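ok trying this again, last paste got cut off
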Amino acid sequence: MHAATSAGSMALNDIGRGGAGAGASNSSSGNDIGRGGAAGTASKKRLVMIIADPGRESTAAMEWALSHSVVEGDDILLLHVNMPPSGAPGGAPPSRTGSGGSGGASPLGVFLGGGGYADGEFMETMRTACKARHPRARVHAERVEPATEGREAKAQTILAESQRRGVELLVIGHRRFSNFLGLRSGSGSSRGHDSTAEFLIEHSKCLCVSVQKKGQNAGYLLNTKTHKNFWLLA
């Protein structure tokens, strides 16, 4: 695991920023994952897709995106895939009570009620939170049906939607597993993994960041295709 203050974090300055200046400090580099440009530098409008589910993992992903990645001028798309409860890829459906270090008492987490939404409410609650944090942003909340069947139907649907819409930054929460992004078994099973996040990190043409909240004040654990288990201090 790499802390945000480690020497190796300097390379993170350029992720998703369109070539940020080299003068950024190590301590701020984790904050720049997925930013559309260096602070104070104009950048073209981006479409940021945040995967919306009724659970703490999704709340944490949105919290990180709104606090550390979305900049003025970005558009935000909250996307939810209507998966059958027993057919969600990567294991059981998202937890509504959270697990391990997924919780937290941040202002946004309090506003969202800790992720315990009713099925018909969480999309509008998340959309309202986005508008509250970025009033000028255009925020869309959409539900889509899975485009395929099988274990990776959710991931494949998200991937297809992100490519079709020209998404530049994809943010997804991941459940807490001890062996995230490890090796698959000989049968191809990804048991022990959040396979949706893993699939999207590996196959997305745009920058994909998976986010895990590490307790109330411990920050976030971030994963991208090139940076694994990057710990961004709170």
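PB: full thing came through this time. The helical segments are 26-29, 56-68, 107-111, 122-133, 153-165, 195-203.
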